[in-house]
Amino acid sequence: MSAFTPPPLPSDDKRWKIVNGTMRKNGFARHALIETLHSVQSSFGYLDDDAIRFVAQSLRVPLSQAYGVVTFYHYFSLKPPGKHTATVCAGTACYIKGAAKLIATAEKRLGICQGQTTSDGQISLMTARCVGACSRAPVVLCDDEVVGEMTDEQMIGQLERWAVE
Amino acid sequence: MTVEELDQIAISVRQENAKYDYEVNVCMDLACVSQGSDKLRDALVQAAEAAGKKVLIRRTGCMGPCSHGPLVRVDPDDVLYRKVHAGHAGQIVSSLGGAPVAELQCDLNEHFGSQVRVVLENAGYIDPEKIDDYIARDGYKALLTVLTEMTPNGVIHRITESGLRGRGGGGYPTGLKWGTVAKAAGNLKYVVCNGDEGDPGAFMDRSVMEGDPHRVIEGMAIAAYAVGASKGFIYVRAEYPVAVSRLTTALREARRRGLLGNDICGTPFSFDVEIRLGAGAFVCGEETALIASIEGRRGTPKPRPPYPAVSGLWGKPTLINNVETYANIAPIVRNGGKWFANMGSERSKGTKVFALTGKIANTGLVEVPMGIKLRQIIEDIGGGVPEGHTFKAVQTGGPSGGCIPAELLDVGVSYDALLKMGSIMGSGGMIVMDDTSCMVNVARFFIEFCMTESCGKCIPCRSGTAQMHTLLTRICNGTGTMDDLQLLEELCATVKETSLCGLGQTAPNPVLSTLKYFRNEYIEHILHKRCPAGVCSMQAAVEVLA
Predict the structure, then answer these.
(1) Domain-embedded: residue B93
(2) CB-CB under 8 Å, B358 with A97
(3) Do residues B510 and B481 share a domain?
(4) Which residue numbers in chain A have pLDDT < 70?
(5) Which of A28, A91, B219, B434 is in Cβ range 3.0-4.6 Å of B329 for a Cys bridge?
C-alpha cells in the first residue's frame, strides 16, 4: 500500500485544524465525508469550493462525489449565511398553524425569497423541514433560538431589529 | 460492573436524594426551554438557597403536555405546575411543606388518565445527563441480565414472544428481524439506530433521545448481543443538536461505567456505539438510504433484496431499528414478553408514543396502549379542538400517511386498522386539523414535501410527485379541471405501484386519503372555484372567470 500524504491545510486559519481533527479522528476514512463536511460548515458557516476540494483530496474521494454529497443534503450550504438567520419551520404542524403566511410576511419585508440573504448581508431567510418543537407551532429559529407561537407582528419586529444590529 | 454494583449505585442515588426534603423537576425539553425553563431552573436554585430549604432541583426530559409548558413537578407530593416562569420560583419554593400554589397547579387527570407509560416511563423523572439517575430506575439491569443469564436465542425468543413490531412505521415484527440478522453468515455485523426523524410534525424520537438516552443505548446493546454484533451506529438528524449532545454524554458515561466497550461486565461481549449525523434528507429514513448516508454517500435507496439484515452497512449483516423500538427492549427483557403482549390489540402489542399537535388543546407527547380509540386520544387526552372550531381530520404517518375523518374516530389504533383506513401508523406524528384546514391544500403540502425530498433515483417518484404537485396546485388555484382530477388519480396509482422505495410508494397516500374522504372539497375547488375552508387563494380562478 502506497503511503498517502494529505494535502496541506488551505491556510493558517485555526478553523482548518478543527476540520483536520475530525478527519484524523476518523482515520481519514472515506466514509467520514459527511462528518467532515459538517465540521467545515459548523466552523466556517458554509462550504466553499476550496473547502470541498480540500476535504475531497484529504479523504481521497473524487471531487464530483464530494460535490454530489454537498448538494444532495439540504443541511449543507454553498453560500455564506447573513449576520442573522431566521429559519421558519415548515413542518406539518407549523404549516397547519400558518407558517406559510409567516414566510410570505418575511419575504415581503426583506424583499428576498426563502433561501436567500439580503444584499447588505444582514439577514438570511431559511426554512427547515421540522425542528421538532411542533407543540409550539408555528416555530421560527431566530439565530438558533427557538421562538414558538410566532406571529406576523413579532416576525416583523425581529427583522426590523436585526436590520440595524 | 455486576448486578450487585448496579444495585449499589441505585442505593447511593436514593440515599443522596433522601438528603433532600423535596424534589422539584423542571422540564428542559425544547418546547419548555423555548419558553424560558432554563432561566426558571436557575431561579429555583437561587430561591431554594435563599430560603435555606433542602430542595433537589432536577432538569428532566419531556413531561408530555407541552402546550402547558414550562412544566414543573414537585415530588414527593406529585404536584404538577403549568406555565411556570422564573418569577414564580420564590412562590413555589415557599409553598414547599404547605399548600401548593393554586393558580399554577394544573389538573390533567383526564390527559394522563388513559395513558400507559413504558417508553416514556423515565421522562420527567431523571436527569438525562446523569447515568446514575437512569441506573436508579432499573437502568442497565436488563443488559446485565441478558449478558449473564440469557443466550442470544433466548433474548430473541423473548422479543418475539412480546409481539413487538417496528415503531418506525412499517411495523415489521422485531423478533423476526433480529432472528434474520442473528442467522446471517459472517462474524462482522452492525446494529444501527434510526434516529432520522424526518417526518415533519413528529418529535417522539427526539424527546426519547433527549430525555432518556441511556434507554436507547441499552436497547442497542441488548440487540447487539442477540444478533452477534460488536459495533453500533446511531444516525441522528443534524437538526437535533440537543439530542446529539445528550447522546454523546450518555455514550461517554456508559463507557466510563464499563457498560460499553470491551468485555462488558466481565463477559466476552464487546460493543460500542458511534453517532452519525444526518444532513437534512427525509429519504435517509429509508434503511438502504440511511446505510448509504452512514457510509458517507448520497442517501439514495437501493432495491431490496438483499435486505440490510443480510447485506447492509459495508455489505455486512445489519440490524436497523427505530429509536422507539430500542426504547421498548429493556422493559420487555425486565418484565417478560408476556407482560408486553398483554398490552395492546391482537396484532399490535404494547404502547405507542404519539406527538399530538395541530388544532388541539393539549399538544405534546402521549403514550397510549395500542388499540385505544382515536377519539379517546383526541378528545380525552388531547382535550379536543379549541376555540369553537370543529374537528375535521387527523393526519397520521406524516407524508406517507393519510387523513382520517371524524366518522372513523371510533376505530382503535393499530398498524392494520390505520392501513385499512388509507393511512399508516408511521413513526407517530398525529396532527389534528379543524374546519380552517383545506384538505386539498394539505394534500398539496405533502406532495410538495415528497417532491422536494425525492432523491431522484427512480422516475415514478421524481417525475410523478412533480406532476402531481402541478395538478394539485392548479386545483388549489381554481384552474383545475375534472380531467386533472382523473389524471391525478391515475398518477397516484402509478407512483404507488412502481416507485423504488417507501418514499415514492407511500407519497400518494395523503392525496388518496383526502380524495376518499373529502372528495367534495376537490369538487368545490374545480367546479365552483371555491375553497370551503377559505385557505386557497383563488386569484387564478378570478382571472379565468373574468
Answers:
(1) yes
(2) yes
(3) yes
(4) 1-2
(5) B219
pLDDT at residue A2, as a whole number: 62
The answer to whether the beta carbons of residues B101 and B88 sit under 8 Å apart is yes
Count residue pairs from A and B with Cβ separation < 8 A: 137
Residues of A in contact with B431 (CB under 8 A): 92-93, 96, 134
B334 and B364 together in one domain: no
Would you call B355 and A134 a contact, using CB atoms and an 8 Å cutoff? yes
Report if residue B191 sits inside a domain. Answer: yes
Best of A89, A94, A130, A135 to substitute, by most chain B Cβ atoms within 10 angstroms, is: A135
Distances (CA, A) of B484 to A39, A127, B424, B493, B532: 47, 30, 26, 14, 19
**Which of the listed residues B388, B413, B432 is the one where a domain comes to its end?**
B432
Minimum Cα–Cα distance from A30: chain B residue:
B296
| Amino acid of residue B121 | E
- Please report the pLDDT score of residue B248 as a whole number: 98
CATH, residue B181: 3.40.50.11540
Query: Is B258 found in the same domain as B165?
Result: yes
Best of A38, A76, A134 to mutate (most B CBs within 10 Å, chain B) = A134
pTM of the model: 0.95
- Evaluate whether A131 touches B239 at the Cβ level (below 8 Å): yes
Distance from CA of A129 to the nearest CA of B (A): 6
In this complex, do B201 and A136 lie within 8 Å of one another by their Cβ atoms?
no
Buried b / exposed e along B21-52 (16+ C-beta atoms within 10 A): ebbbbbbbbbbbbbbbbbebbebbbebbeeee
Instruction: Classify strands B22-27 and B72-75 as parallel, antiparallel or unpaired.
Output: antiparallel
Look up the CATH number of the domain holding residue B106.
3.40.30.10
Q: Are residues B64 and B15 in the same domain?
A: yes
Q: Are residues B139 and B276 in the same domain?
A: yes
Residues B190 and B258 reside in one and the same domain: yes
Residues of A with CB under 8 A from a CB of B: 30-35, 37-38, 61, 65, 68-69, 72-76, 90-93, 95-97, 128-137, 139, 145-148
What pLDDT does B546 receive? 52
Tell me the CA distances in angstroms from B514 to A98, B158, B446, B509, one per residue in order. 20, 40, 11, 8
Boundary (domain end) residue, out of B42, B77, B112? B112
What is the extent of the structural domain holding B34? Answer: 3-112
**SS3 sequence of B121-168:** CCCCCCCCCCHHHHHHCCCCHHHHHHHHHCCHHHHHHHHHHHCCECCC
pLDDT at residue A4 in the model = 81
Do B162 and B233 fall within a single domain?
A: yes
- Give the pLDDT score at B301: 97
B232 domain residue, yes or no = yes
Burial class (CB in 10 A: 0-12, 13-18, 19+), B441: buried
Q: What kind and span of H or E run contains B490?
A: helix B482-498
pLDDT of residue B201: 87
Residue in the block written with cell 431554594: B48
Number of domains chain B is built from = 4
Please name the member of A34, A91, A97 whose beta carbon is closest to the beta carbon of B296: A34
Q: Is residue B233 part of a domain?
A: yes
Is the ipTM above a cut-off of 0.90?
Answer: yes
* Residues B279, B142 within the same domain: yes
